[in-house]
Structures are given as C-alpha cells and as structure tokens.
Amino acid sequence: MGVWCTDKFSRSISSHLRSIKGLNGIGLALAAPAIQALVADSTNNRNHGLAFGWLQFTGLLGSIIGLFIALLLSPTTLLGIDGWRIAFFLVAVVSMIVGMLVWSYAVDPHFTSEPVSKEEDVVQKSVLNEVNDFLNETKSIIQIPSFQIFIAQGVPGTFTGAAFSFLPMWFELIGFSHNYTAFLLTLLSIAYAIGGVFAGVMGDFLAQHFPNAGRVILSQISSGSKIPLAGVLLLGLPYDASSGAIYAVVIFFMGLITTWEDAATNKKRMQSHWTECN
Predict the structure, then answer these.
(1) Residue 139, Cβ neighbours under 10 Å: how many?
(2) Domain ranges of the chain
(3) Which of 5, 51, 49, 11 is nearest to 28 (CA)?
(4) How far is CA 25 from the centre of its chain?
(5) Mean pLDDT of 126-136
(6) CA pair distance 50, 53, nearest whole angstrom
(7) Among 41, 52, 85, 270, which is disulfide-ready with 12 (CB 3.0 to 4.6 Å)?
(8) Phi-psi region of 80 (alpha: psi -120 to 50; beta: other; left: phi over 0)
(9) Axis crossing angle, helix 267-276 with helix 48-73, rounded to the nearest 10
(10) Beta carbons within 8 Å of 242's beta carbon, 6+ residues apart
(11) What DSSP state is assigned to residue 262?
(12) How does pLDDT run across 72-92, given as a tens digit for each residue?
C-alpha cells in the first residue's frame, strides 16, 4: 500500500509519468495477492464465494465512484494545480488512510500476538534461503495439473479482456455520445459487481451440494455464455445509435453472467492449491 501511495503522490507532482509508472504495477502486485490471501484465510468453504463476491463488488463500486470523481476533477484547476493531478493526490491520501486502517484493525487469523517460547521462535533465514524456499514453493505449485490448466486457459482467456478495452471507441464509432458511452460502461461495471456477489452465493451453495463439481459447473456456464453474448453485442445488434436501449440491456446481462469465475471458482481454487503446497 505504501508503494502504491508513493506512486500516486509522485504522479501528482511529477511531470515524468513514465519514469514512475512502474511503481503502480509494483503496488498492485503487492496489494492484490495480500488482500485475496487475507480474505481466503478469514473465511471457510461455506462462505468463500460470498466473501470474494463482496470483494469484487466493493472494488468495482469504488472504481465507479472514483471514475466520476476523476471526470469531475480533470477539467478543473485548484490553486493553479491541474485537476488530474489532484485526482492522483486524492488516491494517494486514500491509500495512506486505508493502509493505516489495515495496520491498526486488520487481524491475520494465522498470526498470534502472544509471546512464544524459545523453542517456538521462528528461525531467522538468510535472503538466499528465503529465495530458495520461494522457488521451491513456486515449483511445487506449477507441478499441480489443475494449476497448469489455469495457466493454459488464462493465456487465451486474456484476449477478450484486451479486446473489450476498445469498447468505448467502438461505441462512439457506432454513434453514441460520450455521455451515453460512459453510461454503458458504468452499467457494465455495475453488472460486474452484482454478478460477482451472485456468483459467490451460488458457488457456496453448489459447493455444499456438489463439492467436486459445483463451482466448476457455475464457471463453465459463465465462460460458455461469453461467446454467444459477445456475438449478439458485436454482430447481432444494429449499428445505430438509436438502439441504445437494446445495447444497454445486452451490456447489463453480459456483465451479470460473464464474471462468475473469479468469485465462484478461481480464487477459491488458487487458495486450495496454496493449502496443498503447505
């Protein structure tokens, strides 16, 4: 969180954005796995999906709110400071506050604050030993067949996300206004958020009745719906801005149905793989 905060603060005052952009990636790489691990360790098999669903919901809700604030600030100036710089500064401040709250109130279920005896003291390891342990753990995870399937599926699975990054441009080429394009993208994010919570609840329910296949079946339904829904959106609807209502309906159902994998299955399975290796 501190690295992320430093990145956002640096962007708010620096004119060399490329030189500090890497800090954002480092901050995300540190924060995201830690958050997911904390959620996984704080829940059990009965509510894993619901917890990850709400994590997805709150994250997307925050993105929507942040988007509106950034759009409002971007064309403005305050005390001679560009609005977009103020937006980065606000993100840095919020990140700092969240980091302090996590430090003060978050509880790691695997950590005990009670003093330990000398026999239970953790053995201090050198940096080289830590690196070797990390490499051995990574190797053991990579050797799990289902994890290999994750990786194989993930490579082509990123194609759709990359392609859909051009949705705003495509909507505007059809003839939608900037405001209506923003509305469609906001609607898509809202559908993603609702779909995550629904997937979490259904994933937990199916896991109790079909432990070996319930979550997987739900994700297969979600993945299988992507191609026909994308086909309807890209090929089946008229290229006419007057059909905005139809686009909104398709976009909403697309976001609602095609985002079940993470909350229902993927994050739960990743946590299970980690448990198997420890």
Answers:
(1) 10
(2) 1-109, 144-273
(3) 5
(4) 13
(5) 80
(6) 5
(7) 85
(8) left
(9) 120
(10) none
(11) I
(12) 777 777 778 777 777 777 877
